[in-house]
Amino acid sequence: MTLPRDAVLLRIFVGEDDKTERRPLYEAIVLKAREHGLAGATVLRGPLGFGHSSRLHTTKILRLSADLPMVIEIVDTPEKIEAFLPVLDTIMTSGLVTLEKVQVLQYGETRNGKA
């Protein structure tokens, strides 16, 4: 699959303990993205962060896993990302979603449009 140079980055911020139908929310989002034919998704686990409650979530000291921040990143065409947003509405109960215009410089086996 080749993406156009101009694409959209969908970034979703959730907590590690967030669930939907007894499944981790970040896992459900990635599976839905695959089901809807998006180009790919990556989940990143943060060692430290805070959200709207201002409560710190950290791996430090005695708290081994205190609802750590999770970030799901998905890059695809604007149309496919826009079509995926209503899916997020059905499974997210809390979190933050951002959209950014990005330029794809490398994808798969080609680099800058060259094989």
TrEMBL record:
Pfam families: DUF190. InterPro entries: N-reg_PII-like_a/b, N-reg_PII/ATP_PRibTrfase_C, UPF0166. It comes from the Bacteria. Belongs to the UPF0166 family. This is DUF190 domain-containing protein. It comes from Rhodoplanes serenus.
